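Bug #77: duplicate submission created two jobs. Keeping one. Sequence:
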Amino acid sequence: METLRLYDFLPSGNCYKIRLLLTQLGMPFTRIEIDVSKGLTRTPEFLSKNPNGKIPVLEIETGQYLAESNAILVYLSEGTEYFPYDRFLRAQVLQWLFFEQYSHEPFIATPRYWMTILNQAEAKKAEIEKRHQSGYTALHVMEHHLITNSFFVGGRYSIADISLFAYTHVAPEAGYDLTQFPAIEAWIKRVKSQPGYIAITED
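Kept job's structure:
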């Protein structure tokens, strides 16, 4: 098998999910930096890899590409401890992955991108405040679950945690106050204590 190639943007939480899992699996990979703020995902070369023009993209072998961060997580974790064997537990993992992309990521990742990458906190203030409403709703859902659960599925660390951790732990960079979510803060510490953990700034 060829070495995996990850088309990546270091600050991106969606890309970080993949780097974190690959590192924890001990799988070697080559990281290729694609600066989305400079429009590098819109070039013909990149669009030939992912017509949707987004990162991350995982090149599994020459000419074989997989996009969408949570789909990549499922692909890489198949047959490992990070994706359960039990049918119902697997469906629960998928449930949280869908929740992350639909109810969580758009309301945390996008304001963070505006504020930390584009430096548009003032210009986007009204839109950020609007997104915060839905973002806080998602955080309350997570908090409620984590009050009685150490991790999101089956009492053990899985790709559901990796997916939700990626943007939750940097939510303060998007203007969120996590101090009102003690169960989330305790969970963040548990994730950071997992073997092979790397920070989002590590490549």
